[in-house]
Amino acid sequence: MFDYRVPALTRRAFLTSAAAVSAGAMLPLQPTTYAADIRQFRLRAGLGRAQIAPEPHGDTPIWCYDGSLPGPEIRIRQGERLRVAVENKLDEETTVHWHGLRVPNAMDGVPHLTQAPIAPGETFAYEFDAVDAGTFWYHPHHRSFEQVGRGLYGPLIVEEADPVRVDREVTWVLSDWRLTKTAEMREDFGNRHDMMHNGRVGNTVTINGRVPDVFQVRKGERIRLRLINAANARIFGLDFGSHEPVVIALDGQPVDPHAPESGLVVLGPAMRADVILDMTAAAGSRVSVIDRFYEDLEFRLVDLAYDDNPLRQKAPDWPVALPPNPLPEPDLASAGRHEVTFNGGMMGAMVMQEMGGSMGDMGKDPSDQMGGMMGMGGMMNMTHSGGIWFINGVAAEGHIMDPMLTLARDKSHVIAMTNATAWHHPIHLHGHSFRVISRNGKRTRYREWQDTVLMSPRERLEIALVADNAGDWMFHCHILEHQAAGMMGVFRVA
Ligand code: C2O
Ligand code: CU
Asked: pTM (2 decimals)?
């Protein structure tokens, strides 16, 4: 019998029938009204079913928006105002966070911090201007490790007034699932092992909510591929084979067009990349897209299947650079400096000790040392606190907390972050995009704007931003089990 699953981290090759790749439940979302630059939508969070594993497996019970997986693609133009009425048909509270969008604090969707959670049966209307063009997504911020993990997420695309020319735009929402042999959801959400290690990594990887087989393309075609990693914990590192992807935006924000480092498009949870993909292989051929992020666990994500008829013989030479978004440029000379240290998890104390010797400038700030010590203390006492992960020595419990940092409003800030753990962490700041300016003391080549930055074990990096959005903003790891186990804090911009 057919096995769609990936034991451990990888996925076995699978066979599938043509029927299994026929259209899923992706319904285009129609605006209910279109009036004077306000675009209105409704989203209903509720129970559903989706054909995640290929037939002959049955469908899987999920939680989702509007009965579809992923949720409907919300697509608007830069500068438009968006209004989304979110109706909660779940049996528990929820909220919606507009990941990466620079919205007013009250529209940020963080339960208790920016709004009361939406109770079952109730509706909450979010409304904000789409300041930046780019590839974004939406998801709950209440018990995300389970609500997102069961399928509550969707893409949100803000189009440039003047987009780059392509033949086709495609959105791939990547995710994974932990399914049983009969394609039921494994119910072990938020278990302690996942929380202490690398989170809920699934055994079934999907594109737009289903295990893919082939993706049809034509020779000579130029595609703008919008990649969104909606997984709880899985990091993707996509190898497009003989193709030469050009990254033109990261986390929605334009970047100097470039080939991805080491050839892999790497996406931690919540991260996005816009990639220009010229279809340069032979008509009638097939090229596999391979995920190579985890060593020795590579697997075939999907095959690009070339039509027999080319669209054109050579790739077009249209320009690929995107127009910039209106982001304030941080002034490094006058910037305030802040230190943030992450610790905890399995082997956390060990890494802290090991890094202690090499974290020279951390030693100058006694509060960081404290953070480290408290982190280790917390490790030892974790049965009492429940905390497993710590930021500057504190493990968050729920969204109600005092700010860990206050950033002077409209001023530039550099935040130096140290990952004193043995694990990767995609670190996300709400309400702002920041430039990643250095990694391990080395200036980054593209000084890319991000809202979620992937930190390797033991890595030190610096980000810079102008804190121009007033309010209390979440700062957390987007491995949702890490977030739930303490790895979050609040930055106050005032
Ligand atoms: Cu995408 Cu605080 O989250
Ligand atoms: Cu993490």
From this structure: 0.90
